[in-house]
Amino acid sequence: MSRRVRGTGPALVLARAPYGESSLVVRVLTARHGPQRLLARGAHRAKSAFAWTLDLFDELDLRWSAPEHGGLGNLEAGTVRARRRRIPADLGRYRAALCGLELADLVARPGEEEGPLYASLSTLLDALQADELAAPVDGLLAAFEARLLEDLGLMPALEECAVCGGAAPADQPSERRSGPRAPFSAGAGGRLCRTCALEARKAGRRVGTLAARDLEALRHAGAGTPPMDPARALAAHEIAARFLDYHLDTLPRTHQRFASSPRP
Ligand SMILES: [Zn+2]
Asked: Relative to the CA of 88, which of 121, 138, 212, 238 has its CA 20 to 30 Å away?
């Protein structure tokens, strides 16, 4: 039998699935040991040690053992450090929180510590639990996504040209209220100057345009100042979400409302 390793510490449930008649398999993100898949025996029994402790969004303290080289572990003990009851009670907060969990689940690498990811997710959930939201939920999500992009080394160029590093003016004509637009290509790394946009098109890349205001909103979100205006917040979230989808090469369920156009 392969050696087992034990772990303890803070954790967040990313997803839960029933297992047998009374058990659960949970995917959790731990603060110090990255993602783990754990079997919680008897979690659905009222007398179980885990009854009421494995809810989404709550900050937990878990103890588990797992095969040394990965695979399904055993949850041995769990307590709730902090409940976040306001999130499931409000549809907007709930959806945003689910989107955060789903993204974390997609990018968390088994065997890696993933401390920054844990901190970012915990920060998002705290923000969504606040009495008064500090910004629209889409803005809070945009801030989370921008941190994720930074940590993954995928943050798109939002000011200068992604290819040549030169000025990338927003000089594309626009009839829309969101104002002047700049060329943008997920495949080319973000915002582009006019010359590099032409080159990218010639090379067969899909190049669109994005409102300079929206790119700036995402930049501010990444710097810790989520947009307060709901339209800017949604736009910043949409840019970050599409960029993540492009680079993760998958479409999270919670992002499918942005999937109206063909993938680049
Ligand atoms: Zn350029």
From this structure: 238
Note the pLDDT of residue 263: 42
Which residues crowd ion ligand 1, with CB under 5 Å? 161, 163-164, 166, 193, 196
The domain spans of the chain are: 4-133, 134-264
138-150 pLDDT, tens digit each? 999 999 999 999 9
**How is domain 4-133 classified at the CATH fold level?**
OB fold (Dihydrolipoamide Acetyltransferase, E2P) (2.40.50)
> Smallest Cα–Cα separation from 143: which of 251, 28, 133, 159?
133
Average pLDDT, the chain: 90
Q: How far apart are CA 97 and CA 57, in angstroms?
A: 7
Q: What is the pLDDT of residues 1-20, one digit of tens each?
A: 568 899 999 999 999 999 98
Q: Rounded to an integer, what distance in angstroms lies between the CA atom of residue 250 and that of residue 261?
A: 15
Please report where in the chains the tokens 């209220």 appear, as a residue.
177
Q: Ligand 1: distance of its center to the CA of 196 in Å?
A: 4
Distance 194 CA to ligand 1 centre (A): 7
Q: Judge whether 138 and 230 are in contact, CB under 8 Å.
A: yes
pTM of the model: 0.89
Q: Measured between alpha carbons, how far is 241 from 186 in angstroms, rounded to an integer? A: 11
The predicted model gives 185-195 an average pLDDT of 95
Q: Rounded to the nearest whole angstrom, what is the distance from the C-alpha of residue 168 to the centroid of ligand 1?
A: 7
| Angstrom distance (rounded) from CA 15 to CA 119 | 18
